[in-house]
């Protein structure tokens, strides 16, 4: 029997600062994990073991039992919140810098590396910038946070000197597609590395006034059962939880299905409307304002990001086809309606019944106006007459 208490009459004491001493010899755990606040390092967890009930298990798996107890302790939300991580951001562009600001504010140590030189931008937000990935990896960050473009992720990941990292490093990505990085990580990363796939579903624009209520999707793809590993993942997730995000745990496959039907369509519509060159008018409606905002929000993201949403989400093509279909349907609906009106008008013109004619009159389009468009007769019309939408019968040469 295992009991946990805070009394001093116990046989073993387990605290986050001496995690390594109670792990099975063959277990892999992050060697130097978290710098805990003083309040937590002082706090001691006591474990009492009753040898009479389960002594054999105790001898062979005593360390596992202790680890479980330790797990309960370090997963305590207060402890998770107080733990600080050393996080390396790879890809320090628009989104990487945006995330870094909040992570730094929460007291974590942030290192960064990118293809371009962002040393000045990094300094401004208290991030340590490395122009060489080897140097960065030799700092042994506990978390590698990949913020590269979707298209460059594989190349960047394969170029990282993984051998310089601690063998239980936690890899996290923030790509806007999820099945792709999941399978890439499983394929490229050594088995000892933990994997957390995430998608903060907001950006520098939508999250500029804080992350409260904004969705954060995550999938714990591969996390070792060792308490230090689970604790590390929870500590990372707490960054977003504490910033007020709505935490949504779902598989990468589920994410991609939902994202194609929502996020990809949003970006697609934004890009299409951008091509129309919408302009501010003196009589903007609320609806129109929201379209202008949509264009603004989506056009600010790189085209590479948009292309990645399409190319690396297998559900995106289907959504594109559905949009084509929907566009055609609405067009047909409109022209079908117009056709009905014209047909009724034709019937009225050929109907001599005065009573019926009077009834039909109410269905006619408004009186003629100079600018109203005319319905172009189809190519096979041979009679030298066609009906204009203004309701009068015109005579013309084809
Ligand atoms: P992005 O254009 O998707 O990515 C820019 C980043 O990728 C920069 O750090 C850039 O490095 C790096 N990069 C691009 N091509 C590269 C190459 N050939 N080799 C090495 N690095 C390369 O724009 P982003 O908005 O910053 O997005 C970054 C990631 O966050 C993407 O995966 C995106 O899906 C995800 N995300 C973005 C948002 C958002 O609102 N923007 C929201 C959620 C998730 P350099 O700058 O050094 O060239």
UniProtKB/TrEMBL annotation:
For this UniProt entry, the molecular function terms from Gene Ontology, in alphabetical order, are:
arogenate dehydrogenase (NADP+) activity; prephenate dehydrogenase (NAD+) activity; prephenate dehydrogenase (NADP+) activity
Is the keyword Phosphoprotein assigned to this protein?
A: no
GO BP terms, alphabetized: tyrosine biosynthetic process
- Taxonomic superkingdom: Eukaryota
Signal peptide positions are none
What are the alphabetically sorted keywords of the record? Oxidoreductase
Q: According to the UniProt entry, which residue ranges have a biased composition of type Polar residues?
A: 14-24
One Pfam family name is F420_oxidored
Which regions are flagged for Low complexity bias?
1-13, 25-35
* Region annotation Disordered: where it falls in the sequence: 1-35
Domain Prephenate/arogenate dehydrogenase: start-end pairs: 85-364
Kindly provide the name given to this protein in its UniProt entry.
Answer: Arogenate dehydrogenase 2
Protein's organism: Amaranthus tricolor
| Annotated gene | ADH2
């Amino acid at each position: 029997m295992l009991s946990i208490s805070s009394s001093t009459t116990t046989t073993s004491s387990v605290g986050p600062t001496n995690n390594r001493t109670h792990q099975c010899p063959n277990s892999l755990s992050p060697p130097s994990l978290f710098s805990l606040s003083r309040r937590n390092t002082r706090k001691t967890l006591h474990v009492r073991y009753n040898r009479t009930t389960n002594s054999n298990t105790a001898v062979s798996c005593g360390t596992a039992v202790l680890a479980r107890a330790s797990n309960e302790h370090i997963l305590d939300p207060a402890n998770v919140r107080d733990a600080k991580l050393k996080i390396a951001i790879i890809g320090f562009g628009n989104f990487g810098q945006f995330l870094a600001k909040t992570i730094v504010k929460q007291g974590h140590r942030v290192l960064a590396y990118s293809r371009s030189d962002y040393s000045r931008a990094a300094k401004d937000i208290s991030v340590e910038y490395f122009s060489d990935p080897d140097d960065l990896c030799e700092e042994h960050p506990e978390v590698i946070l990949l913020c590269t473009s979707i298209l460059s992720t594989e190349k960047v990941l394969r170029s990282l000197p993984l051998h310089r990292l601690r063998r239980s490093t936690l890899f996290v990505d923030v790509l806007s597609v999820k099945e792709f990085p999941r399978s890439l990580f499983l394929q490229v990363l050594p088995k000892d590395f933990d994997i957390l796939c995430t998608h903060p579903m907001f950006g520098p624009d939508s999250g500029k006034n804080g992350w409260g209520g904004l969705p954060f999707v995550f999938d714990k793809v591969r996390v070792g059962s060792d308490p230090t590993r689970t604790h590390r993942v929870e500590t990372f997730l707490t960054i977003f939880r504490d910033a007020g995000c709505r935490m949504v745990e779902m598989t990468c496959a589920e994410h991609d299905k939902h994202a194609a039907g929502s996020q990809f369509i949003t970006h697609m519509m934004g890009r299409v409307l951008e091509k129309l060159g919408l302009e501010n008018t003196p009589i903007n409606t609320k609806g129109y304002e929201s379209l202008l905002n949509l264009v603004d929000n989506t056009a600010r993201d790189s085209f590479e990001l948009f292309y990645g949403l399409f190319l690396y989400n297998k559900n995106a093509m289907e959504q594109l086809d559905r949009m084509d279909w929907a566009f055609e349907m609405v067009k047909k609906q409109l022209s079908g309606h117009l056709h009905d009106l014209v047909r009724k008008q034709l019937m009225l013109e050929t109907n001599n019944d005065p009573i019926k004619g009077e009834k039909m009159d109410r269905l006619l389009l408004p009186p003629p106006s100079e600018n109203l468009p005319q319905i172009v007769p189809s190519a096979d019309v041979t009679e030298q007459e066609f009906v204009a939408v203004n309701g009068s019968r015109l005579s013309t040469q084809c």
